[in-house]
Design goal:
The structure is a homodimer of 207-residue chains. With 207 residues, chain A is of the alpha/beta class. Chain A folds into two domains: 69 residues, Orthogonal Bundle (Arc Repressor Mutant, subunit A), CATH 1.10.10.10; 112 residues, NAD(P)-binding Rossmann-like Domain (Rossmann fold), CATH 3.40.50. Chain A is built from nine helices and nine strands. In chain A, strand 7, helix 7 and strand 8 form a beta-alpha-beta unit. Chain A is globular and about 60 Å long. Chains A and B meet through helix 1, helix 5, strand 8, helix 8 and helix 9 of A and helix 1, helix 5, strand 8, helix 8 and helix 9 of B. Chain A binds a DNA duplex (22 and 22 nucleotides) through helix 1 and helix 3.
Chain lengths: 207, 207
DNA sequence: GTATGTGAATCTCTTCACAGCA
DNA sequence: TGCTGTGAAGAGATTCACATAC
């Protein structure tokens, strides 16, 4: 039964469930119980069932979930049932790594354009994508790209983010260690490597 | 006043507060109120005060926080008051990017060793660090390295993680998209880029 | 018999609102 | 007066336990 509000934590877990289901299907598991999936990804069965319940009833009582059907359902919830084009801005070391990273494709993402402001990089080709001058960012609108990956320096991030939003971007995966101020209909998800690293010592025993 | 249990969410925010305080101090702010810090990093003043209160009383009523003192206090809580040596395993595209990434240093981390299993990479030098054969991982114990950054493929991650733990590593920053099974006194923090990307479309309006 | 789906209970985290102190 | 520090209240997320359906 559809509830009024879906917990954010639930949305965070859905991609984990999706990946788990995909891997288990590859392994030949045509059908899954919440317990099997839980064991595979390291979660609790009750959590999985509760999370699914926010979106409806996916399974069969006494049996479990049909794996391909489950994959379709989660994909649809996450709007991953269609492919998504993405643009990458900032082709430094991290940007290059992201460019050749293959992990996005299982969720249906493909990087369709890349921009930088460094003349030495513009015109170069990585993975079949030619790096363009950031001054020509507006071309992403015609390409109907709505997702951006931001891998520029902190100093440039806010300015580039605004430019992206002005050119039709609706969601940003942000790798710069700073807060982005964007209109509230734009979703920003930030990955801050140093921030995560910084809390490791807290949890480590003794020295 | 020290409470029995510190919320995990609080620990996640401490590095944000720390970075904010450092940046504001650089900007000349010798003293801070919870409201100023909150505005700078995008949080609520009450949240900041509550978070600090788990560890004691850092400020002066009616005045605020002495910025350098605050930085020291948070650093101490996070055990960032000493420098931490880290080892990087997996010098692919992402590993190389991490190797040259400068964002760790403000928290006192330095990468002191790097390993890979690719003969073509072994012996190469990046940023002053020579890439060593992963077969020689045991040398990290003598160097007293307790933190590892794992940037190998999913297939190798579990095996390498075990090897790291066997050689004295107490905390792992894991970039591979898989769960690591480690003894429970070992802390793993995972960064899964594709997973974060995968929930972007959910939040985006329309198509 | 077996595993889902879900209200209720529990636990955790955040916000409030104000006492306490410079 | 002004801002911290903190119990209490409120909101949010997880776990429990069982009715429900195959």
């Amino acid at each position: 039964m559809r509830h009024y509000r879906i917990p954010d934590e639930t949305v965070k877990r859905l991609p984990v469930y999706l990946r788990g289901a995909v891997l288990l299907l590859k392994d030949g598991k045509k059908s899954l119980s919440s317990g099997e999936l839980a064991g595979f990804i390291g979660a609790s069965p009750a959590q999985i069932r509760k999370d699914f319940s926010y979106f409806g009833a996916f399974g069969t009582r006494g049996v479990g979930y049909d794996t391909p059907k489950l994959i379709k359902q989660i994909s649809k919830i996450l709007k991953l049932n269609k492919r998504h084009k993405a643009v990458l801005v900032g082709i430094g070391n991290l940007g290059t790594a992201i460019m050749v990273y293959t992990g996005f494709s299982i969720y249906g993402f493909s990087i369709e354009a890349a921009f930088d402001n460094d003349a030495k990089k513009i015109g170069k080709k990585i993975n079949g994508i030619t790096i363009e001058d950031i001054a020509k960012l507006r071309t992403i609108r015609a390409k109907k790209i709505q997702i951006a990956i931001l891998a520029v320096t902190s100093g440039q991030a806010q300015r580039v983010a605004e430019s992206l939003v002005n050119n039709g971007i609706k969601g940003i995966l942000n790798f710069s260690p700073c807060r982005l101020e964007v209109p509230k209909n734009i979703k920003v998800i930030s990955i801050d490597i140093a921030l995560d690293m910084a809390r490791l010592p807290y949890y480590m025993p003794k020295t």
